[in-house]
DNA sequence: GTTAGGG
DNA sequence: CCCTAAC
């Protein structure tokens, strides 16, 4: 998708690693450097113009954040740690902590480097080694940091604004973290409190799972927290000393165990992606944190040794859809996406699906994804459950075939009598069948009077048969011209839905008898060479349906045809019997039904292939 | 390209 | 009939 686009930089994913001195008003400005990842992976320092562009973008972004109360929620989905900034003293404002990546370069301005406000976090494994004394310097979330020295633990931010995005002086309050806290044990209210302490804003979310995930993730992603002596394991916040096996635990963020709801869903829908599971033990912080970047080919400098297990199989569309459903369900609780956000999505052009690892961690780096399906290559916010198949290609012929307001049945009836019906190109045989379902008629099905089947001849045939019947048989013998001659429309019209005629059914059944079920190509070649509109898949499908119908109908095997008042073509019972017989021979009989078969056996041996089937 | 199966 | 995974 991406690669197919004529791009200048050969799929380079422009990523900024650092931006320099953009925040003049900040006490301790972040020192970034703006670079662009070149096609070969080199980091190209940004030009002055590019920096200007980014500055503007950041300005916009800041304004935007003020308008959007809960930008952080999005950013959390986008945040990707894994960057160890060069300086050990950096300041991250709320706005700046949002990772805002526009992964799809506007072709019009490819030279402009993509704006990336890097989350000021090193991998947790490293940050946790940071001396606490530098904590406030390292991780203050406030712009002016008035009380950066003493996060007041007695008054846990009761006056903190509900939306901290606009440069509030909120600081995380970890006073609650004295001792162990098991998030699982907390009631919703407590969780909400903890949420507030963690994020500095109120939440009305009652979903415990969601709260726990948010808190865990928030703490894990928080510099402040990681600078403490606490770690998180399995929804339990505990002192580092108490944690024995903390090595990989601290990286697991909130992994499966806590992620009850969502993860179980993932499990269900992902059961075929086995390697997911096996990755379980391999996960490390760097792996988790960098996985998103990894997908973006930015991992060159980052923990590349972790990048090993790749998913072997591409996920199915269904997987993507279900994933989207889960995500949308989660995000729907939070906020409506501002338009701006969509421009800042973090999505990896290389992968329209996220690696499974990302799913498992609660970092949700992809708000949107590349949708290569349907060949559009367009980036869409979510893969909603839209119609999967491509739109009907040639419905114009269909419209032509069904002119005016005449409904199908009427048209068919008319054509049955009126030779000069509008659809002369249609085989009248088709119309014969359809007639049986027409309103005015008794449900007498019209059986093709095939010479070989006396059974059919025994059936009562309605008046109009004689005419049509001939046609039907003619089709049976040499319908090629009729079928193959589509119409004056040019090219063969491939109707998207052409009801199966009895004749075709018979041919199919005979074909199955002759070549065996499953040899659809063979059957198509021989028996349906004159029916180009029946593909082998069609034959298979029809056979499947016949099979089903036959066993449904068999219990009440009247000699009559199914006189159900259905619009579909009723299949004569004898044919169904034969279907069943063939199915029996070919071992296609459902075990349940196989017991009660063999009763109508005799009635079905009328066809030419009866002898064959007999000795078979 | 074909087959099997789900939708 | 469409779509897709597997073969």
TrEMBL record:
Per its record, how is this protein called by name? Answer: Uncharacterized protein
- Identify the GO cellular component terms for this protein: nucleus
**Which cell locations does it reside in?**
Nucleus
Give yes or no: UniProt keyword Nucleus.
yes
**Assigned keywords, A-Z:** Nucleus
Q: Which PROSITE patterns match?
A: HTH_MYB, MYB_LIKE
Q: Which residue ranges have biased composition labelled Acidic residues? A: 146-157
Keyword hit for Nucleus: yes
Record's compositionally biased regions (Polar residues): 160-169, 432-445
> What parts of the sequence cross the membrane?
none
Q: Which domain of life is it from?
A: Eukaryota
């Amino acid at each position: 998708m991406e690669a197919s686009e004529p791009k200048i930089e050969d799929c380079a994913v422009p990523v900024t690693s650092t931006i320099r001195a953009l925040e003049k008003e900040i006490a301790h400005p972040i020192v970034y450097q703006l670079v662009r990842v070149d096609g070969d992976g080199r980091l190209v320092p940004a030009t002055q113009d590019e920096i200007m562009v980014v500055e503007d973008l950041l300005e916009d972004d800041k304004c935007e954040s003020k308008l959007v109360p809960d930008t952080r929620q999005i950013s959390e989905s986008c945040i990707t740690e894994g960057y160890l900034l060069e300086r050990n003293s950096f300041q991250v404002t709320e706005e700046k902590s949002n990772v805002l990546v526009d992964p799809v370069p506007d072709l019009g301005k490819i030279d402009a480097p993509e704006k990336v406000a890097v989350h000021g976090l090193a991998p947790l494994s490293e940050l946790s080694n940071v001396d606490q004394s530098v904590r406030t310097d390292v991780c203050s979330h406030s712009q002016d940091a008035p009380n950066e020295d003493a996060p007041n633990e007695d008054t846990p931010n009761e006056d903190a604004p509900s939306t901290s995005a606009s440069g509030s002086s909120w600081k995380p309050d970890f006073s609650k973290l004295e001792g162990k806290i098991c998030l699982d044990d907390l009631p919703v209210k407590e969780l909400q409190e903890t949420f507030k302490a963690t994020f500095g804003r109120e939440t009305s979310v009652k979903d415990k799972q969601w709260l726990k995930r948010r808190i865990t993730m928030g703490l894990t992603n928080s510099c402040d927290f990681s600078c403490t002596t606490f770690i998180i394991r399995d929804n339990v916040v505990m002192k580092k000393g108490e944690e024995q096996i903390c090595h990989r635990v601290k990286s697991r963020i909130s992994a499966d165990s806590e992620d009850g709801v969502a993860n179980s869903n993932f499990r269900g829908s992902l059961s075929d992606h086995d390697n997911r599971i096996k990755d379980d033990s391999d996960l490390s912080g760097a792996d988790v944190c960098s996985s998103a970047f990894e997908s973006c080919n930015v991992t060159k400098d980052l923990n590349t040794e972790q990048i090993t297990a790749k998913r072997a199989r591409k996920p199915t569309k269904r997987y993507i859809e279900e994933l989207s459903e889960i995500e949308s369900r989660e995000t729907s609780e939070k906020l409506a996406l501002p338009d701006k956000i969509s421009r800042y999505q973090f999505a990896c052009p290389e992968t329209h699906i996220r690696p499974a690892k990302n799913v498992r961690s609660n970092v949700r780096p992809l708000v949107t994804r590349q949708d290569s399906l349907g060949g559009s290559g367009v980036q869409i916010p979510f893969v909603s459950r839209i119609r999967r198949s491509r739109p009907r290609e040639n419905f114009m012929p269909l419209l032509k075939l069904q002119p005016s307001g005449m409904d199908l049945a009427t048209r068919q009836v008319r054509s049955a009598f009126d030779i000069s019906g509008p659809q002369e190109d249609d085989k009248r045989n088709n119309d014969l069948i359809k007639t049986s379902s027409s309103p005015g008629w008794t449900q007498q099905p019209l059986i093709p009077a095939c010479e070989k089947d006396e059974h059919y001849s025994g059936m009562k045939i309605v008046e109009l048969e004689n005419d049509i019947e001939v046609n039907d048989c003619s089709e049976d013998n040499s319908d090629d011209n009729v079928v193959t001659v589509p119409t004056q429309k040019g090219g063969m019209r491939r109707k998207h839905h052409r009801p199966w005629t009895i004749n075709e059914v018979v041919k199919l059944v005979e074909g199955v008898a002759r070549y065996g079920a499953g040899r659809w190509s063979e059957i198509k070649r021989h028996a349906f060479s004159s029916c180009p509109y029946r593909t082998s898949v069609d034959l298979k499908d029809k056979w499947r349906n016949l099979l089903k119908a036959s066993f449904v109908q068999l219990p009440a095997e009247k000699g009559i045809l199914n006189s159900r008042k259905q619009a579909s073509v009723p299949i004569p019972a004898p044919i169904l019997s034969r279907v069943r017989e063939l199915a029996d021979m070919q071992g296609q009989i459902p075990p349940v039904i196989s017991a009660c078969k063999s009763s109508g056996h005799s009635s079905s041996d009328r066809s030419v292939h009866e002898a064959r089937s007999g000795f078979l």
